[in-house]
UniProtKB/TrEMBL annotation, chain A:
Organism (species): Virgibacillus halodenitrificans (Bacillus halodenitrificans)
Domain of life: Bacteria
A GO term for molecular function: 3-isopropylmalate dehydratase activity
Protein name: 3-isopropylmalate dehydratase small subunit
Pfam families in alphabetical order: Aconitase_C (PF00694)
UniProt keywords, alphabetically: Amino-acid biosynthesis, Branched-chain amino acid biosynthesis, Leucine biosynthesis, Lyase
A GO CC term attached to the entry: 3-isopropylmalate dehydratase complex
Keyword Amino-acid biosynthesis attributed: yes
Annotated ranges, domain Aconitase A/isopropylmalate dehydratase small subunit swivel: 1-123
Protein family: Belongs to the LeuD family. LeuD type 1 subfamily.
Transmembrane parts of this sequence: none
Amino acid sequence: MEAIKKHKGLVYPLNRTNIDTDQIIPKQFLKRIERTGFGQFLFYHWRFDDNGNKRQNFALNKEAYEGVTILLAGENFGCGSSREHAPWALLDYGFRVIIAPSFADIFYNNALKNGIIPIQLDEEQIGEWMKQAEETSMSLDIDLINQQITDSAGNNISFHIPAYHKEKLINGWDEIALTLKHEDKISAYEVR
Amino acid sequence: MGKPQTIIEKIWEKHVVHQEEGKPDLLYIDLHLVHEVTSPQAFEGLRLSNRKVRRPDLTYATMDHNVPTQNREVIKDKVSKKQMETLQENCKEHGIKLADMFHPDQGIVHVIGPQLGLTQPGKTIVCGDSHTSTHGAFGALAFGIGTSEVEHVLATQTIWQERPKTLNVKVEGELGPGVTAKDLILAIIAKFGVRFGTGYVIEYTGQAVRNLSMEGRMTVCNMSIEAGARAGLISPDEKTIEFLKGKEYVPDGDAYKQLADSWLQLATDEGAKYDKTVTIKAEDIEPQVSWGTNPGMCVPISGKTPDLNEVDYREDVERALEYMGLDENQPITSIEIDHVFIGSCTNSRLNDLQKAASIVDGRKVKENVRAIVVPGSFSIKMQAEKEGLDMIFKKAGFEWREAGCSMCLAMNDDIVPPGGRCASTSNRNFEGRQGNGSRTHLVSPEMAAAAAIEGHFVDVRKYAGVPS
């Protein structure tokens, strides 16, 4: 996993609640055995029509949102299926940070394992940025170490992330290697 | 006597391998179920870092998500074929038992675990699939994980987990005749929402839950994830131990007796405290039908689609109605369907098929409705055929298929076409879930069967022969 300490990028506002992982990456793309290359299928049926043409009314297809790396979304982002293909697709498309009022439990974990920062903020703040980002190109500056977001108006908003998740993200640690440091305890458990 | 504990706390404490202030606990995993879709990248990860599967003996694999439910000899989809071959190779390389497409134990992973007795009370069970919560019906702590976590469990047989909060969903009173476990869980999600369980493990309690068959309990626990909870469980009782008796992976004789005793001890103690408790009255629950694009968007059969002036998140509701091709305030019974799917890890067990067959018996599927039955496992299929259920379904005009996940998520050829409308016994009505542009209405097997015959939703309780 690639370490991430800070991130500055353009915001894409997706003002919908309960965005499920079936929308993030539809099932027909889960048959591949690789971990990479899923970005092209992200939000597939929202981005493309039945003939594979871009839907002009879906904002992510607009030029203004080219190169976005921060996703703003509604409550319960990533609900439904446990497919890790969802964070793989988001990451491969370019998203490194997702900001939402709440996340589904499995998705939250899956995002962290892939070096995506899931940030939980209150609905009001997100709503404000959402509106702004719908009107004009907007960037946010995220400082994971100090747990702060700076917006284009210079406002500083702090956010919470559990310390152990933060530590893993900023170091890009391999979790299995960390766990295997407790190998003696696992073995002891197995014989008890 | 120590402090009264919930079953959740009891199982948790027994499985902690390592604990540290301010960090999640490292939990030991007793059973790791594996399928073809979420495992190839995990095995690849092991290979790249030169790691082995720590406990192949605690790991069990099957093929379910994209197996064809007819003509298995020829798999047309090359990418699917490759994925299944990869599972075969990985299992062979690491010495993992695999029930492949032609194995008598093959079936949906959450159906075969209990059927084989791999699922047992008190176990910690994980699988790269969100419906792993199903196994909670037996008083196991079972939850879905992502592929990185699959790799972690393969390599270490453990997982880092934050201690969950406990949520008691108490169902007071008894369900009325013709109201099923599926209606109960749909009503719970409709009432409390699709995220009320986030961060919690649910325990379902109360008389109506105790009264459910083990199959019914699996249906309820299965959809815990649709309420936001990674896991949902039910304390073991006599029904639980009776169900497991004689199963392939359950010991017999004295060993069984001892185990069964210890299983009963796991039940939540009198007076144990939960972090949150919600209650629902079973008597108030009618057969349910989902109208929208998440499982919380659900109403009783006597109900209507929402009034846009009376909803929160109006835009989301508008979008859902538009996707579903429905009007606001539209009576549920006026919704005509063209597909019926009876199957999935929610409702594909023998008991589900028997109940659906009792509605179908001697009747015909409505013209222009395509109806399929996909048993949850090969063994269920065999048992159903022994009882003649296949003939009842076929005579009525249903297709009778081989076991798999099938039209629940349409990874194989069982797809609802764009604009098609399906009465489905599965668990998710997300946009495109059963095929791009498909429209899903979640219902019980009985309600699906009745819809197949009438061509639109009807209150199955008014139907002759309704099992009570």
